[in-house]
């Protein structure tokens, strides 16, 4: 398959003192926008048991913010990585590489990954990570507390690359496609992390208003997104959090394709809030 996709990756640094402060960050009850310019050196975090890493936390479970997932953009220097990356046995994860290369070892088997590389790591899976290259690697790490269901096994780990998977077109529309990494009817999976692609001028033609929570990281291009009645311009490198039921639609602005990495929680009963 031809590789014509690009992936935005932040590179940190600090804006000069001469730059204007105004930017596009928005935080509301229904959605948040973290624009690309925010990913500077001074807003990074570190984690225990990792070497040569820093990360931008772009979503975390918090009252009034993400409820079902956390999302990090992780940067690992050459030689860096972790033998103990995940400390929570119930956490499942997707890793998606936006720059560089790394090796992920799952249950003792080493998987080299490059840009567009995608790994699914089920809860309790034993995995490690190492940048054996000579340039930094940058990847998204999306984590969710897996919702076990009696009688259904947790899914197995897999590693692939988006360029090995044919995107699925929306019915009757050749301007909007989704690259799916798991079968939508596979009830073992309680989260989907997909890549949504719009050709220039493509739209979500109505305000989707649904129970699934979203994280959207714009990998490529630009668009205007309609979020809870407000129009916001977004471009490659921006992150959007959309609360469950946040009305959402968009126009892809061109001149190239508009693409984003999309998180959503799926396939589970709606828990009751009991008195
Ligand atoms: N904002 C979105 O891209 N939403 C998707 N159509 C979705 O919910 O799958």
UniProtKB/TrEMBL annotation:
The keyword Hydrolase applies. InterPro entries: Cupin_2, RmlC-like_jellyroll, RmlC_Cupin_sf, UGHY, UGlyAH_cupin_C, UGlyAH_cupin_N. Gene3D superfamilies: Jelly Rolls (2.60.120.10). Residues 73-142, 195-259 form the Cupin type-2 domain. Keywords: Hydrolase. Pfam families: Cupin_2. It comes from the Bacteria. One of its GO terms (molecular function) is ureidoglycine aminohydrolase activity. NCBIfam families: AAH_UGLYAH2, PRK11171.1-2, PRK11171.1-5, ura-cupin. This is (S)-ureidoglycine aminohydrolase.
